[in-house]
Amino acid sequence: MADRQRQSDYKKGSLTLSGTIAMGTGVMIGAGIFALTGQVAEYAGPWFPAAFLIAAIISAFSAYTYIKMSNKYPSAGGIAMILHKAYGQSAVTGACALLMAFSMVINESLVARTFGTYTLQLFDAGEKQWLVPVLAVALIAGAFLINLAGNKYIGAVSKITAVLKVGGILAFAVAALWASGFSFEAATTLESSDYSFTGFLAGVALAILAYKGFTTITNSGGEVKNPERNVGRAIMISLGVCLAVYMAVAFAVGTSLTIEELIAAKDYALAEAARPALGGYGVIFTVTIAIIATASGLLASVFAVSRMLAMLTEMNLIPHSHFGMPGRIQNHTLVYTVVLAALLAVFFDLSRIASLGAIFYLVMDIAIHWGVYRHLRHDVGAKGWILLSAIALDAVALGAFLAIKSAADPLIVFIGIAAIIVIFAFERVYLHRLRGGSGVTAAQHKHNA
């Protein structure tokens, strides 16, 4: 009984190609468009559509590494598997895998707060902004319950919501562009010289978060039908769909709002853009699509990160405690995931949540590419120059982002760097104790029925 409870219960072939694409686009579109459009514009100014385009190119270079690894080693742990293959049972493996997991949890809190912010646009909330974290936590709780139901329901919900939100967002974009006469004058009224190239690159770093949901597909590789073929296809199709949607929306928002207006309403940019272009009914339509997009995005992200944490536990890279909870490890990690996401949604605003997510993700991504370049590129048949290009692109974006944030919000940079140091130190201590025969491992841990 105890052994069965410790199993992560991955089901091979439980995710089809279409379901996997829906899950990947669900995470990306849920976070990217609604949560990050205004945030990116704050850094990149009138060039914010180009920031989304450059971010897609960088993400494509990054995806190359993940696709090559997943083609040969499909795994339900995805990123944890890649790190383990590259660095072995080391602190680098555990710490970078945790950075990715925390980045995904941060993304969940980002999406949840976006859900709350957009939902309030339907009402005259006034000063009741405390309702934003309340709604965010409610959404996280709902995603938790659906995830308990299993892959069958997650895949079905993802497919339906993917069609609704992609179609709805494109309808918003076309309507807004049509109403403006396909002009991009509003956002370009501000002098582009008011924004620096470093600021533009910082915007690119944030925009990368809008695409990093493709790693959700990697993390679910062991559960995808024909993973050697379909994981790569799902990643590239998802990136292509999201790029098309992002560019359409970026231009649509740019036709309706000036940069000053866009930045002022950065937490609910699409709803604000719908007001002048489409009127009150347009706002209702846009908010409805935002609710669908953020809810489904959170659902898919919780699915992926809880599986990843379960695999880290099984690999003895992180400790595990059931805290009196019955059932399997994957259900326990699901609880940890939603609790941490809820705490972040309550105590951090959208800007700081996005900043932490960008820092964690880019550091982890660089480590992935370097590990594959140094140890695995011949094994998986990856081209060295593409891997090094991915590292360079990530490093430039991260450096620019840290430079801008150090001047504008040094506290969040300090929190991000301090958290990375603590995570690496924790892993070194934990693995040292584990090798010394002390500590609790997944294999040793006894679960009460």
What does this protein structure show overall?
- The protein is an all-alpha fold.
- The protein has a single domain (2-435), classed as Amino acid/polyamine transporter I (Up-down Bundle).
- Helix content is 77%, strand content 0%.
- It is built from 17 helices and no strands.
- α4 (79-87) packs antiparallel against α5 (91-119) and α7 (151-179) packs antiparallel against α12 (269-314).
- Residues 1-9 and 438-449 have low confidence and may be disordered.
- It is found in: Cell membrane.
- GO terms for molecular function: transmembrane transporter activity.
- This is APC family permease.
- It is a multi-pass membrane protein.
Summarize the helices and strands and which ones pair or pack.
Layout: H1 2-6, H2 17-44, H3 48-72, H4 79-87, H5 91-119, H6 131-149, H7 151-179, H8 197-208, H9 214-219, H10 227-256, H11 259-264, H12 269-314, H13 329-347, H14 350-375, H15 377-380, H16 384-408, H17 410-435
Helix pairs in contact: 2-3, 2-5, 2-7, 2-8, 2-10, 2-12, 3-8, 3-10, 3-16, 4-5, 4-14, 5-6, 5-12, 5-13, 5-14, 5-17, 6-12, 6-13, 7-10, 7-12, 8-16, 10-12, 12-13, 14-16, 14-17, 16-17
* Poorly predicted ranges: 1-9, 438-449
Number of domains: 1
Q: Helix proportion of residues, in percent? A: over 70%
Q: What is CATH's topology name?
A: Amino acid/polyamine transporter I
Largest sheet: none
What is the overall pLDDT average? 81
CATH superfamily: Amino acid/polyamine transporter I
| End-to-end CA span | 8 Å
Strand elements, count: 0
Q: What is the name of the CATH architecture? A: Up-down Bundle
Structural class: mainly alpha
CATH class: Mainly Alpha
Number of helices: 17
Shape estimate: globular
User: Secondary-structure element order, as H and E?
Assistant: HHHHHHHHHHHHHHHHH
- The share of residues in extended strands comes to under 5%
Any idea what the radius of gyration is? 21 Å
InterPro entries: AA/rel_permease1, APC_superfamily
Keywords: Cell membrane, Membrane, Transmembrane, Transmembrane helix
Membrane topology: Multi-pass membrane protein
Main location: membrane
